[in-house]
Specification:
mainly beta; 12 strands; about 120 residues
Length: about 120
């Protein structure tokens, strides 16, 4: 079962920061995806199996960071320096992995949380 817990506001100004969290019993390979209106869902961050570290898609590299709290079985996505290109519904998913420049998933989706960036 995937549970989504949010912290911080969902309506942010450009340059703002937001952290979202996702908990699951099989939390280790939790990754993040987003879907903007009229666009396909895209991977934001997922587990690179060869290294065990998180992989970040180019649009968020250097601004987003994923971390795990093992005792809480929770993965956090810390989003910094949000831009007008970032608004979307953000989903966590279990059983994710990196496939080249894409994130793939085979587990369960979280409910999704709306992130809005407006000046």
């Amino acid at each position: 079962q995937v549970q989504r817990v949010e912290s911080g506001g969902d309506l942010l100004q450009p340059g703002g920061s937001l952290t979202v969290a996702c908990s699951a019993s099989d939390y280790y390979a939790i990754g993040w995806f987003r879907q903007a209106p009229g666009k396909q869902r895209e991977g934001v961050s997922c587990l690179a199996l060869t290294s065990g570290y998180a992989y970040y898609a180019d649009p968020v590299k250097g601004r987003f960071n994923s971390s795990r709290h093992h005792a809480k079985k929770t993965v956090y996505l810390q989003m910094h320096n949000l831009s007008p290109e970032d608004p979307a519904i953000y989903y966590c998913a279990t059983d994710t992995w990196r496939d080249g420049s894409r994130c793939m998933m085979s587990g369960q989706w979280g409910q999704g949380t709306q992130v809005t960036v407006s000046a």
